[in-house]
Amino acid sequence: MGRWLDHSVTTEVQAPAEDVWAVWSDLEAMPKWMRWIESVKTLDDPDLTDWTLAAQGFRFHWKARITQRVEAQQLHWESVGGLPTKGAVRFYPESADRTVVKLSVSYELPRVLAPLMEPSILGGIVTKELQANLDRFRDLVEKVG
Length: 145
Fold this sequence. Notes:
Blueprint: E1 4-13, H1 17-24, E2 37-42, E3 48-55, E4 58-70, E5 74-82, E6 85-95, E7 98-108, H2 119-144
């Protein structure tokens, strides 16, 4: 078993939680705003998705199952094959037209990367990228709304 890395990022979106949820829950559209995600495909089971991540010349593939879904409040997932990963996104309505989004992601450091990169350096890179992705998500939601 390898080392797990954890990341949490937050952004504030000028939109109601229902609108924020509607954009997030379209998982197949994630590559539009999540730069390293190459594709997301929903499988026959709507709670099962197939993911491909491509970054820095590496490609990782996994399937993820939604383990908890509460409309406009939270979505939890964990991988069921491929890259070991789990996480959650939570939506906190601050007012009728403002929502705080918190994304938490954990993954097992891929063996191929372990000898190449110090986990603290990789962690910083991933946290920075997740924050940039969440900010692109915020901009997309605010542009749509």
